[in-house]
Sequence to fold (431 residues):
Amino acid sequence: MNSNGKAVLTYDGGKSIDLPVYSGTIGPDVIDIRSLGQTGMFTYDPGFLATASCQSAITYIDGDAGLLYYRGYPIEQLAEHADFMEVCYLLLNGELPNKSQRESFEGNIRRHTMVHDQLTNFFKGFRRDAHPMAVMVGVVGALSAFYHDALNITNAEHRAISATRLLAKVPTIAAMCYRYNTGLPFIYPRNDLSYAANFLYMMFATPCEEYVPNSVLVKAFDRILTLHADHEQNASTSTVRLAGSSGANPFACIAAGIAALWGPAHGGANEAVLKQLGEMGDVSQVGKYISRAKDKDDSFRLMGFGHRVYKNMDPRAGVMRKTCHDVLNELGLHDDPMFKLALELERIALEDEYFISKKLYPNVDFYSGIVLRALGIPVSMFTAVFALGRTVGWITQWNEMISDPEQKIGRPRQLYVGPTKRDWLPVEQRG
Ligand code: SDX
Fold:
């Protein structure tokens, strides 16, 4: 980051403090408020609407222009030309791989997809109908009980080993969640399949007959993983960074990220979109739901719409909509009523003054559920798939945070509005 002058804060009727201003390579400047403590005051920013928590070289978002770059490469180009393994290498290493780098990276991932056989016992502790995200949080967190041979987070090689283990094993664990939920036997991963094909194989193969993943569906799923790979300092990534700032091991940090992603305001929105479209039923009900979304006295939100940063179309939503077309056409479902309903809902909402004035556009979650459903993935697994794609982004952000010389344990302050000092009273003297 580069110094770019200063901001002057005046307070207390005449006092002032100079606050340095820094510029990045692109995007808004930041005001360094670390010296604010000398004023005896804190900044106040619930939800961190105007707070940069770190400097990062991984992902850039321009919410007004609807831009998303991974290490400088536009998401539309990566979705079109790269596959998820190449995107993982790019995020983790900062550059696109050459042929030998790509082969070595992917070969390493493919050889680490199996989990310790005792890990299967953890599943038996859950009810069959447990939500897959509850199981994912538990089982991913438990990985640190199995792989404690490389948990020294100050050791870059240990961090790389843990990154490989997480990237390779999270798909296996996610597929196991689905298999356990359905009562089907776990399917071992195969080293001869691509990352996306292997996941679909572990999800849908049976021991009774050969299962060959459809290449169009594999490509679509691979693209979905790319679209979910990283998104700068979103809630779950910030959770991973905060957990990591205490020195917690990477498996615990990623489990914390999975827990944060589960919320319907975040990664849980893809599941909520499908439920909402299902409740809506058909186009005749769209107006009622739009009205509820606009009613200030109704806490109802149109799921899959709006975003903290994007005040323009989420570029991932456009790619996801196209992927929807590809998958539904491949499956002969181009008349899928839910997809038609989603297209009509998007059209009506984007013409509505409320959505226009508040700059509420479809986000990544609006169409992803329709594609996942068409791929045969149950609604309950949607957020687990989001976690599967985002794991590489969480690991990359965690790695950057650990390696950042400015990094300290995250410890925000507060504006206290509770009782002033008072003395304890015996129960007889209480009101
Ligand atoms: C993800 O941060 C990331 O990068 C996340 C993510 C990633 O890749 O990691 O992009 C993934 O989480 C996408 C978002 C998925 N969530 C949803 O689709 C849930 C529905 N969306 C909303 O809950 C909401 O838009 C948020 C949570 C996404 C953003 O909320 P903000 O930034 O806190 O915005 P806000 O709630 O302050 O809304 C601003 C205004 C409000 O009205 P006013 O108080 O100004 O009158 O817009 C309204 C809101 O009521 N509004 C909506 C709305 N979203 C915002 N009104 C109706 N329907 C909606 N969906």
In short: The mean pLDDT is 95. The two ends are 58 Å apart (CA to CA). Residues 231, 234, 265-267, 269, 293, 301-309, 358, 360, 363-365 surround s-citryldethia Coenzyme A (CB under 6 Å). The first strand starts at residue 2 and ends at 11.
